[in-house]
Design goal:
The complex is a heterodimer of chains A (about 160) and B (about 140).
Chain A lengths: L30 E3 L4 E8 L2 E4 L2 E3 L2 E2 L2 E4 L4 E3 L2 E2 L2 E4 L2 E3 L2 E8 L4 E3 L2 E8 L4 E3 L2 E3 L2 H10 L2 H7 L12
Parallel strand pairs in A: 1-3, 2-4, 2-5, 3-6, 4-7, 5-8, 6-9, 7-10, 8-11, 9-11, 10-12, 11-13, 12-14, 13-15
Chain B lengths: L1 E4 L23 E4 L3 E8 L3 E4 L2 E3 L2 E2 L2 E4 L4 E3 L2 E8 L2 E3 L2 E8 L4 E3 L2 E2 L2 E4 L4 E3 L16
Parallel strand pairs in B: 1-14, 2-4, 3-5, 3-6, 4-7, 5-8, 6-9, 7-9, 8-10, 9-11, 10-12, 11-13, 11-14, 12-15
């Protein structure tokens, strides 16, 4: 019924994967975690990320925007972080800004920090030196996402 | 069981222009772009579009795995459209598998559409109704 004979084996699933493509490819547009989405796990992004929903886990990205209805439980490591929502966890980024609707319970490790009047801050605000800032920039970038993931198809076949 | 092969032209892209299509009850639209890797479970009543990579279970009203998108884990939804790669079981009421798709794992379905060229490995058991809130993910 289906042409079983011409199927590729699971080890080489599709032509797009024959060359070891990076697990994360550059994308011009921000990824969006919508308001009704709940993520239990980590997010690794080499580009821009907009969180409007709930995330229980760590976020590593180039830029992170936590929207006003969003709730994050976990750490955020990025180059730029904008917070209009709620976060329980450490924020580590060279540039951090907290809007007046923002609520941060945890430390903010930053180089530049902007906080609007009315924001809820509960934690230490520590400054990172320029060496740490450079490490944060490359650490949140594409290279760490590539290293962290293996190409699909090298895993064993999932049980049906 | 409704199985249609080859005449999927009208169905192809049914979920493609879903950017403005709300999920059930006008719920949201999540986009996992090419540069995002999610390791964990996603749960929503809206629409999830995957252009990047997800390692874990996705429980949603509708799921679209675009070309280049990869999921390693279970897809549990009312509507599932796969144009990329899925390794793991798919449990949905309405499943569409595109011609460049690779699906490794069982596809539990009520309605199944497979375009010529799709690569499938696993059983495709028909179930009268799949309840994503009751189904063990």
């Amino acid at each position: 019924m289906f042409s079983h004979g011409s199927k590729s084996s699971p080890e080489t699933p599709s032509p797009a994967r024959e060359t070891p493509a990076p697990a994360a490819r550059p994308s011009g547009e921000p990824s969006i975690i919508s308001a009704d989405l709940r993520v239990v796990g980590d997010l690794h992004c080499s580009g821009d990320l907009q969180v409007k929903g709930n995330v229980e886990g760590d976020i590593k990205s180039r830029s992170v925007t936590i929207g006003s209805g969003a709730h994050v439980q976990g750490s955020v490591i990025a180059e730029t972080v904008h917070i209009s929502g709620s976060i329980e966890g450490e924020i580590k980024a060279p540039a951090v800004s907290v809007a007046k609707s923002g609520r941060v319970v945890g430390d903010i490790i930053h180089q530049t920090l902007a906080v609007e009047a009315g924001a809820h801050l509960d934690g230490h605000c520590r400054r990172m030196d320029s060496k740490q800032a450079k490490a944060a920039e490359t650490g949140a970038g594409l290279s760490s996402v590539k290293a962290a993931t293996a190409p699909l198809g090298t895993e064993k076949k999932a049980a049906g | 069981m409704i199985l249609s092969i080859g005449s999927a032209r009208s169905v192809r892209g049914a979920l493609d222009e879903e950017k403005s299509r709300p999920g059930r009850d006008g719920a949201g639209h999540t986009v996992i772009h090419a540069d995002l890797v999610v390791r964990g479970e996603l749960r929503t009543d809206g629409h999830v579009e995957i252009i990047g990579r997800v390692e874990g279970t996705i429980n949603s009203h509708s799921i679209l795995v675009r070309e280049g998108g990869e999921v390693e884990g279970t897809l549990l939804a009312e509507f599932v459209e796969v144009r990329g790669t899925v390794v793991g079981p798919v449990r949905a009421n309405n499943v569409t598998i595109g011609r460049d798709a690779v699906v490794v794992g069982s596809v539990f379905h009520n309605t199944l559409t497979i375009e010529p060229g799709a690569r499938l490995e696993g059983r495709r058991p028909w179930r009268p109704h799949i309840d994503r809130n009751a189904e063990p993910a």
